[in-house]
Amino acid sequence: MTGTDVKKVLIAGATGYLGKYAVKAFKARGYWVRVLSRDKGRLFEPGPFTAPALSTEDIDDIFIGQVADPATLTGIMEGIDIVFSCVGISRQRDGLTFEQVDYQCNRNLIDLCLASGVPRFVYVSMQGAENIMHLAITQAHERVVSDLRESGLEYRIVRPCGYFSDMGVLYDMASRGRSYLVGQGNNRMNPIHGRDLAEACVDAAEGEELEIEVGGPDIMTQREAAELAFEVVGKPARISVIPMWLARTLVRFIRLLSTQFGDLAEFIVTAGELDGVGPRRGTTTLRSYFESLHAADKKQE
Predict the structure, then answer these.
(1) How many domains does the chain have?
(2) Is 121 within a domain?
């Protein structure tokens, strides 16, 4: 894209794991990039699990506002051709619910698109949602999907099979010498690196498929992923299993203390029971990802 052909994209969720990679991927494809952030400083800091720090060369415009508060977003859609959103709760810290963040924040963006005439909206949901519709997080995501289908917008839905950032937890546990699995860990999965997923998201934004599933190159069980992490850190594999009956009891107890943390805990437990395998679109292996985490740890010693 050159000259008048340059398209403008608004990226919501730009300070998160996928969001940082998405900014770089859209910019590398020639887009003019506006990011929505409530904290400008976080854009230029490295994120967890190898998420990159952004630079001024990655971003054409920073819009400071709160996606939860449309009153702070006046003018954000001006000139925009595509909205890309990966807004959602990744770590439960502030007591907000999946309904408040994963659904309502994205609903706010949809409404702004409709009011401003922005034609296309690319949204990141989850693979296998039909199997876990009893979960609050899935209900929130799929309400966004349903709203997009009914909105009249040119929507695109990307459904990853899992994130390498989640696999980073396995690496951290291996580094400390013991991993804990919910259930036996025999569920199969092929999560994807944020960089590869971001490239797939740009492909989706430019393509004609309404919904795509995206997985990484490695299909393995959760237990095999945990064993791989131990292999990379050079420690004997010590894996403890939390039986499903105990995990579900813990979920009920956590929910008594906090509905929000209970919802998140239920998602983690349920994910330990189900396969999450989709088309292999990524190229970065889980081993190379663990090795990059290990190399970073060595530099800090």
Answers:
(1) 1
(2) yes
Distance CA 191, CA 162 (A): 4
Whole-Å CA distances, 242 to 115, 184, 259: 49, 8, 22
DSSP one-letter code for 185: S
268 located within any domain: no
Over residues 50-74, the mean pLDDT reads: 96
On whether the CB atoms of residues 226 and 237 are closer than 8 A, the answer is yes
Residues 6+ apart with CB under 8 A from 96: 89, 260
pTM over 0.85: yes
Residue with tokens 């390498």: 164
Strand intervals (E) in the chain: 8-12, 32-37, 61-64, 82-85, 120-124, 154-160, 179-182, 188-189, 211-214, 220-221, 239-242
* CA distance linking residue 47 with residue 299, whole number of Å: 17
Q: Which pLDDT tens digit goes with each residue over 178-188?
A: 999 998 999 99
